[in-house]
Write a structure and sequence with these properties.
Elements (H helix, E strand, L loop, with lengths): L3 E4 L8 H12 L3 E4 L2 H11 L13 H16 L1
Parallel strand pairs: 1-2
């Protein structure tokens, strides 16, 4: 079995026990990824009943992705 967890943000990532939990997930073979802007659109189009609405990314979606991608990489080193 393969498990990939994609998240929009990391919450409480500064906490040592959260960092250790992320490392344990990776050590167990789980892939951890931060959602890219395109992933939000895919998720909206695939899993949300939009009722005529389209997904509108927030202004700093790309910056958030880059920030959390860097933090996750630092934690998993």
């Amino acid at each position: 079995m393969r498990l990939t967890i994609m998240v929009a943000r990391l919450f409480m990532w500064e906490e040592p026990e959260i960092q250790e939990g992320l490392r344990q997930l990776r050590a167990a073979g789980c892939k951890l990824k931060i959602m890219k802007p395109a992933d939000f659109i895919y998720t909206w189009d695939t899993y949300v009943e939009p009722e005529g609405q389209t997904f509108t990314p927030w202004v700093d979606t790309q910056e958030n992705y880059e920030y959390y991608e860097e933090k996750l990489s630092e934690i998993l080193q």
